[in-house]
Give the backbone structure.
Amino acid sequence: MTLILGLESSCDETAVALVDSERRILAHRVAGQEDEHRPFGGVVPEIAARAHVERLAPLVEAVLGEADLTLADVDAIAATAGPGLIGGVMVGLVTGKALAHAAGKPLIAVNHLEGHALSPRLADASLEFPYLLLLVSGGHCQLLLVRGVGDYRRLATTIDDAAGEAFDKTAKLLGLGYPGGPAVERLAAQGDPHAVALPRPLAGSTEPHFSFAGLKSAVARTAASGAHRTADLAASFQQAVVDCLVDRSRIALATCPEATAFVVAGGVAANGAIRSALTTLAARFDKPFVAPPLWLCTDNGAMIAWAGAERFAAGLTDSLDTAARPRWPLDPEAEAVRGAGVKA
Ligand code: KG4
Ligand code: ZN
């Protein structure tokens, strides 16, 4: 049994957790920064980095205290080393290095996307490699064949916005504020998903890539016309995203008979309409559907600690001069997609 302390600070959540190799979550804390960023309608990187500086050390103390443990009891320190907002990533990584150095423990530099990608295995011990993963977060929208720890084949990515970005931009357009995804989902529950005709970008295309920019523009035009109830627009937008995710995932599922399961992870995977549509899709392909509990979908320290536990078990640790990486693709072999911006 090994015990890993995990630190997460790549965006707007400061999070720390203690997780062991038996999948026990001994303690975990997430400190959001909604109040700091709300006046600006989105995450301000400099404000985020400063908030991580203030919160990280007290959170580490609180988590160790709650588990009634000290650093000496921990086997390794895992910290997000990218991708993400570089100021915040540096705060978390340098904190992880300092703790590792002071306690004489190994450091594990975790790719935040690997944290999301392996989080379903923390929640479900029966989930085996390889599995088909739909990774949907604020910065990413990808289909990946997860073949093992550190072994990913990217089947598809977005050629413009990420799914969470589309939710956040739509929330802003509809005056729902920040953070956007949960606000759109709440309002959508009171609307008619078929009230407004919106596009399904790339639907029907034979490659499973994603695109959301055209959908966002259509929402902007419709909102400006004032012809529809905001709840109907939110519901119709959410339905369009659901349809795109289902259509694109269907193509990938058809090309991955070896996948043991169809899995969704990342912040957008907290969306109930998306979870339910993906459940139906998986059943059509006779695959088990696996989605982590809601709190494990959005950014948290437990997924970083767990990715650390999986890497530690595979003998993977990192040196104290490991650099923070603002960009860090899970599949370094993946080719750039035509039309894709820097987010690929
Ligand atoms: O994984 P995450 O917490 O952070 C990143 O790594 O990006 O994902 C955050 C994203 C945001 O865009 C947020 O609006 C979206 O996930 N999100 C949701 C929901 N909860 C969070 N989107 C739709 N419905 C939700 N319930
Ligand atoms: Zn994330």
User: Anything to note?
Assistant: The chain has eleven helices and ten strands.
